[in-house]
Amino acid sequence: MRVRRPWGVALLLLALAAAPAAADTSPSPSGDSSGGTETAAPTEAGTSFRSATEIGAGIRATAQGSTGDYLYWSFPADATQRATVRASVRLPEEHAGQTWRIDVYDGLRRRQACQYGAQSRTAAAGAASVELACVLRTVRGWAEPWADDPLPGTYYIRLSAAGLPVADAGRAISAEVQVETADAGGAAAVDGALSEPLVPGIALRAPSDTTDDATDDATDEGGSSEDAAPPVLAGTAPEDGWSSGRWTDRWLWTGAGGLLAALAGVWGHTLTRGRGRPGA
């Protein structure tokens, strides 16, 4: 009996711990296996930077358009993240050779170079589709004003065709775009952070107390709270918020290195100090 009782308690605790996990992994009505609310995939694309469709990491966005149009999407990228943009264009059944490309711009609308990937491809005549990819450089938390380093904020994707024949202009196409982000960790962290991420309209956002006061004033004057709210041009942000300037695992490795150096110094001192004064 003494042997079975601890095993029974252990199995009971294991069952209680597994129950919430089983509930979390049950499929939700929206199809999300994590138990959370899944964001609907966008089915439209913008036609300019200001009207770019916002998408999150891992979401496959689709859009219908015409050859010759510029299609725009936007996504957030935080410090120490490396973004990979993939695009697929389904072409008309009959067409001449076409060159398609994806360009990525940061929050200052500076074009960011791709480290590797097929950023531009030429589809042969009659090809059904064309696949594009662009792997950006790792986002830095801070950089000099003259540098062209990618910084935290909103990034824009532009999908377009170059050198279209006149006969193919204006023909219907369908596009799919997906963004994947990977965290490089503390190895990509830098000493410094932006005061605000490069998100359009973020300078117009008032603090919560200011917003509450403005809402109360507008309500007292008979106006609506929507009129008093400051305009925001973009609402994209990482799921966990902007982490630029926060603690990273680089501090852990730095502290561990300093501790090992101190221990090595003490060990070296014990080896070289000798056994005291020699005997007379």
Description:
- The chain has 280 residues and is α+β, with helices and mostly antiparallel strands.
- β5 and β6 (111-112) form a beta hairpin.
- Strands 1, 3, 5, 6, 8 and 10 form a six-stranded mixed β-sheet that branches. Strands 2-11-4-9-7 form a five-stranded antiparallel β-sheet, with no helix packed on it.
- Helix content is 22%, strand content 26%.
- The radius of gyration is 28 Å and the shape is elongated.
- The chain starts with a helix and ends in an 8-residue tail after the last helix.
- Residues 1-37 and 209-228 have low confidence and may be disordered.
- The protein is built from four helices and eleven strands, in the order αβββββββββββααα.
* Structural Rg: 28 Å
Query: What is the general shape?
Result: elongated
Beta percentage is 25-35%
How many distinct beta strands? Answer: 11
Query: In which range does the helix fraction lie?
Result: 10-25%
Order of helices and strands: HEEEEEEEEEEEHHH
- Give the quaternary arrangement of the chains: single chain
Instruction: Give the number of helices.
Output: 4
Distance between the termini: 71 Å
Query: Stretches where pLDDT falls below 50 for ≥5 residues?
Result: 1-37, 209-228
Largest sheet: 6 strands, mixed
What is the overall pLDDT average? 75
The secondary-structure class comes to alpha+beta
